[in-house]
C-alpha cells in the first residue's frame, strides 16, 4: 500500500519532469522564433546604452557614479518585462488551444506552468549575463564581494521567477494575448 507522502513525492517528481519537457518546448520555440530572443536581449542593451550615454550625461548624483544606480534598475525592469512574456505566451497558448491539448496528455497538471516559468527563468539568466557584460563595458562595477554579487543575482532571479508566476496567472485569466 502506497502512503500519501510517497504519492505526493512521486507527483512532485512527475511535475518537475513534465515541466522540464514543457520548458524544453518553450526554449525550442525561442530558437525557432528568434524575434523573442532578439527582443529580450537587445532591448536591455539599448536601454543601458541610451540611459548611460544619452541621459546619463545630464545626471550627476553626488559622490557616486550614475551607472551604479542605472544598471540595477535596468536589471529589475528587464526581468519584469521578461515575466510579461510568460503571461503573453500562456494567453496565446490558451487562445490557440494548446493548453487543451496538453490537458489531454498524461502529464502533471502543473507541468505547463512549471515549464513556462522555468524556460523564462533560463531566458532571464541569459539576459542577465548579457546585461552584466554590457554594464561592465559602459563602466558599471560590482563594489561588493563575489559572494554578495552572486547572492544578488540569485535574488534577482528569484524575483523574476516569482513575477513570472504572477504573470502566468494573468495570462491564464485574460481572454487574449
SSE order and pairing:
Layout: H1 4-32, H2 34-55, H3 67-96, H4 98-103, H5 111-137, H6 146-173
C-alpha-based Rg, rounded:
19 Å
Helix content: over 70%
What is the tally of helical segments? 6
Note poorly predicted spans: 1-7
Distance between the termini: 46 Å
Shape assignment: elongated
Structural class comes to mainly alpha
Mean pLDDT, all residues? 83
Notes on the protein architecture:
With about 180 residues, the protein is mainly alpha-helical. The protein is built from 6 helices and no strands. The termini are far apart.
Give keywords.
single chain; mainly alpha; 80% helix; 0% strand; disordered N terminus
Short characterization:
The chain is an all-alpha fold. It is built from 6 helices and no strands.
Amino acid at each position: 500500500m502506497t502512503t500519501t507522502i510517497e504519492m505526493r513525492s512521486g507527483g512532485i517528481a512527475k511535475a518537475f519532469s513534465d515541466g522540464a519537457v514543457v520548458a524544453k518546448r518553450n526554449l525550442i520555440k525561442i530558437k525557432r522564433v528568434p524575434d523573442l530572443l532578439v527582443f529580450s536581449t537587445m532591448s536591455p542593451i539599448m536601454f543601458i546604452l541610451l540611459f548611460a550615454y544619452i541621459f546619463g550625461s545630464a545626471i550627476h548624483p553626488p559622490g557616486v557614479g550614475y551607472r551604479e544606480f542605472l544598471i540595477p534598475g535596468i536589471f529589475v525592469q528587464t526581468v519584469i518585462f521578461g515575466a510579461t512574456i510568460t503571461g503573453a505566451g500562456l494567453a496565446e497558448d490558451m487562445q490557440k488551444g494548446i493548453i487543451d491539448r496538453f490537458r489531454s496528455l498524461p502529464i502533471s497538471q502543473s507541468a505547463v506552468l512549471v515549464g513556462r516559468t522555468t524556460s523564462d527563468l533560463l531566458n532571464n539568466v541569459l539576459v542577465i549575463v548579457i546585461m552584466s557584460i554590457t554594464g561592465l563595458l559602459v563602466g558599471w562595477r560590482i563594489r561588493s564581494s563575489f559572494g554578495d554579487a552572486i547572492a544578488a543575482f540569485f535574488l534577482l532571479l528569484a524575483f523574476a521567477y516569482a513575477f513570472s508566476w504572477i504573470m502566468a496567472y494573468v495570462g491564464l485569466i485574460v481572454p487574449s494575448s
